[in-house]
């Protein structure tokens, strides 16, 4: 409870009122669709380049203050003993991206954090969640490269597959995941009623299922040539 109250104070100080309101509306009454995306680490993949140089490393306690100044909602995860959070650090020493890579040994923690929305991981499967690109570094293709490099750390955990969840309407994140080597894997429909998650329906998707933005692009009418 203390952690939640501290996080609320930090969020309010940060001025994230709109984000809080959207989250409350979503949990009060909504139907939302997310996609489970998956990358097979055995499949050859060329990591995309970013417009700025950076290195990926594990989170250090000294990073917490910088993270909380920009993203106070990460306080609960920073205080959980859930390995492992990675950050992308710029040449100037600033953090430009962060994300947790969670292995199957943390299945109980996954159950507590996500309340059944994320199924237990298989022995050869890892989960990437809580991605965040720092504001000053957006628009520089940081996410695709950082995410791809973090995903590859799962090989050292004995995992072949890496999954992540993205909401249907979050097109920028879906595009970033695609560039990081992830493909459509499952569709998940979640129903919220009066701040309770009442239903989670998961559907497997055929191999090669296009991303929503690819479908939208195909459906756009083409202009007829001028007479």
Please summarize what this structure is.
With 227 residues, this protein is α+β, with helices and mostly antiparallel strands.
Give short descriptive properties of this protein.
227 residues; alpha+beta; Aminopeptidase; 8-stranded mixed beta sheet; 8 strands
Description:
The chain has 227 residues and is an alpha+beta fold. Helix content is 32%, strand content 30%. The protein has 8 helices and 8 strands. An 8-stranded mixed sheet has the order 2-3-4-5-6-1-7-8. The longest helix is centred in the first third of the chain and has 13 residues, at 2-14. 24% of the residues are buried. The model has no long low-confidence stretch (mean pLDDT 90).
Please describe the biggest sheet, giving its number of strands, its sense, and whether it closes into a barrel: 8 strands, mixed
Count of discrete domains? 1
Q: Give the fraction of residues assigned to helices.
A: 25-40%
Identify the CATH architecture. Answer: 3-Layer(aba) Sandwich
Reconstruct the topology from this structure.
Blueprint: H1 2-14, H2 17-28, E1 29-40, E2 54-58, H3 64-70, H4 75-79, E3 85-90, E4 95-102, H5 107-114, E5 125-133, H6 142-151, E6 161-167, H7 171-179, E7 183-193, E8 196-204, H8 212-219
Parallel strand pairs: 5-6
Antiparallel strand pairs: 1-6, 1-7, 2-3, 3-4, 4-5, 7-8
Helix pairs in contact: 6-7
């Amino acid at each position: 409870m203390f952690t939640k109250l501290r996080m609320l104070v930090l969020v309010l100080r940060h001025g994230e009122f709109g984000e809080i309101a959207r989250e409350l509306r979503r949990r009060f009454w909504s139907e939302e669709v997310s996609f489970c995306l998956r990358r097979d680490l055995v499949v050859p993949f060329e990591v995309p380049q970013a417009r700025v140089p950076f290195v990926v490393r594990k989170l250090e306690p000294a990073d917490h203050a910088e993270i909380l100044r920009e993203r106070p909602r990460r306080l609960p995860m920073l205080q959980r003993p859930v390995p492992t959070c990675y950050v992308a650090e710029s040449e100037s020493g600033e953090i430009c991206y962060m994300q947790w890579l969670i292995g199957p040994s943390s299945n109980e923690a996954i159950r507590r954090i996500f309340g059944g929305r994320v199924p237990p991981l298989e022995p050869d499967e890892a989960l990437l969640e809580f991605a965040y690109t720092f504001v000053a570094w957006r628009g520089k293709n940081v996410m695709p490269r950082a995410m791809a490099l973090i995903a590859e750390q799962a090989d050292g955990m004995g995992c072949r597959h890496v999954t992540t969840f993205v909401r249907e309407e979050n097109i920028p994140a879906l595009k970033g995941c695609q560039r990081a080597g992830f493909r459509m894997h499952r569709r998940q429909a979640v129903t919220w009623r009066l701040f309770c998650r009442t239903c989670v329906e998961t559907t497997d998707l055929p191999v090669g299922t296009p991303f929503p933005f690819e479908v939208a692009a195909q459906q756009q009418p083409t202009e007829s040539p001028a007479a």
